[in-house]
Design brief:
It is a single chain. The chain is mainly alpha-helical. It is built from ten helices and three strands. It has a single domain, classed as Iron/manganese superoxide dismutase, C-terminal domain (minor pseudopilin epsh fold, 3-Layer(bab) Sandwich), CATH 3.55.40.20. Helix 2 runs antiparallel to helix 5 and helix 7 runs antiparallel to helix 9. The longest helix has 23 residues. Belongs to the iron/manganese superoxide dismutase family.
Amino acid sequence: MENRAVIPSSRRAVLAGIPALAALALSRPVLAQAPSGPHSLPPLPYAPNANEPHIDAQTMEIHHGRHHQAYVTTLNNVLKDHGQLASMPLHELLAKLDQVPENIRTTVRNNAGGHANHSMFWPIMGGRGGTPSGELGEAITRDLGGFDKMKTDFNAAGTGRFGSGWVFVTVARDGKLAITSRPNQDTPLMDGQRVLFGNDVWEHAYYLKYQNRRADYLNAWWNVVNWDRVAERYASAKAGRLEV
């Protein structure tokens, strides 16, 4: 008679579930761990669903946790053998791209720009829109023709950006504002300017919800701007403290 071990029913249940658990694990994406380095992914300052219904939670999770993380990971990777560049603050690195070796310059430009742009982007959202007031509101009226005109011109710059890129409001040390647009992950920081706020018009920022309707996304985005945070950036810029 064959000698078979008796397996308790509780253990049989666990063993029977192993194939299903293995299949589930294989079905999940494996996210690469970021190498150690000077740059890190800043956490979202709010829940991923905080900007709904205007920006959906899935877009926020993918945009922050995958796209922004990829810029940080790649930047740390490319700088790991360049200690002097790795030690530079992000805004200084972007302002001195001509000092970056030519063989890594494009990679640094794209990924440092992507890191800076997104590090600015997350904190200025999570709000409830409305109309800015105080010194910021006065500056918008003085330099950009008022809030409604600013929105119209900003949206036009965003829809007019061919392909991927960003639209920004820049702020000078004297508080003067201007609207500008840049391709890909370029940023006014590359020209020694400072960004007050900006909006991402890469398709990954809006395609799950808006598909090719970039204009609808740009219009909806104003509903999630945190004007208190933008006002803080304005004050920091005038004091010379605003970096990214």
